[in-house]
Amino acid sequence: MTEIENIRYAQRQRLQFIESVAFWEGEIDRPRVCKVFHVSENHVTRDFRLYRQSFPENLDYDITSRVYRPSREFRPQIASGRPEEYLSLLRSYTESQSAALVPAIGQGVRSASLPAPNGQIEPEVLFLATRAIKRRQGLSIQYQSLNTPHPTSRVVWPHALICADFRWHIRAFDEKYGKYLDLVLTRILSVSPTKDPLPAGMEKDAGWENEVLVEITPFAGLSRDQKRVVGMEYGMTQKKSGWGWSVSMRECLVPYFLKIHRLDLDDPTAGFPIALANPELAKQYRFPRIATARQA
Fold first, then answer.
1. Topology at the third CATH level for domain 123-198
2. Closest-CA residue to 126 (of 86, 164, 166, 165)
3. Widest CA span of the chain, in angstroms?
4. Which residues of 190-227 are buried (b: 16+ CB within 10 A; e: fewer)?
5. CATH 2.30.30.100: which residues of the chain?
6. pLDDT tens profile 92-134
7. Could you tell me the pTM of the whole model?
8. In degrees rounded to 5, what are phi and psi of residue 135?
9. How, if at all, do strands 138-143 and 152-164 pair?
């Protein structure tokens, strides 16, 4: 049995992260691994040493930039190399700011969870999208919007990935519409890099940089005891004015938040236990009813 076959779960998790990020983003360095896993640089140095000893053809070290990059002969050895794996790691860290994922606990207390749609993202789409984000480059894509009956050609400059409404998007400036919007990864039918520069004056994405404070409260029509249990269910705190929970989020995420929690409904008494403290947010940020232009 080789050394890497006998490592602990925590170290295998770090090696999986190293391999997956290197493959999909094109590079990985020790400080990032230290930050994500809250371990010392000595731990991470040993991780990289073990990985390169076990798979010497996979990672090259760039002395100038002090990063590890996948070699031309790179093949996934610990990670699966599937888009879903990388995006799962990314989502887990984005939501919890920790890579301390819970391992499978096997059969114990019986449990079940509601299945979620598992959209099939083409590996090439994710591969080129993450590289474009890291390198601040543009992409030429064929995109099937729900606003048009057929695919259209678009040139976009992505700068971030967004997971919202059970789907992954790229946040990008779209030359066709002259603004920043979200493009669903599974609707990108083909993609290729472009050397076209981002149009002048379009460097700032206000929807990404601006923060919006959203506050929810129990629905006003509930009894006192009902409000209390709803407050506990949604992690609210009790104030003099009553139960409430507030969160600051990027402006471009507000429409998704409203949609997922059914806070964008025309009838605020539609049987849902929570409501917006400021109902005007729904009018300002909910997705259009007829078209889905803001979702691209």
1. SH3 type barrels. (2.30.30)
2. 86
3. 65
4. ebeebeeebeeeeeebebbeeebebebbbbeebeeeeb
5. 123-198
6. 777 665 555 444 444 456 767 777 777 889 999 999 999 999 9
7. 0.81
8. -95, 0
9. antiparallel
Q: Which amino acid is at 203?
A: E
Question: Does CATH place domain 3-83 in 1.20.120?
Answer: no
Residue listed under structure tokens 């230290």: 34
Burial of 85: CB neighbours in 10 Å, binned 0-12, 13-18, 19+: middle
Phi, psi of 154 (to 5 degrees): -135, 150
Name residue 92's amino acid.
S
Give the total residue count for the chain: 296
Long-range CB contacts for residues 162-171, cutoff 8 Å, separation at least 24: 162/252, 162/253, 163/87, 163/90, 163/91, 163/94, 164/253, 164/256, 164/260, 165/256, 165/259, 165/260, 166/116, 166/117, 167/117, 167/119, 168/87, 168/119, 168/121, 170/129, 170/133, 171/205, 171/208, 171/252
**By the 8 A CB rule, do 170 and 87 touch?**
no
Q: Which pair of tokens denotes residue 39? A: 């371990």
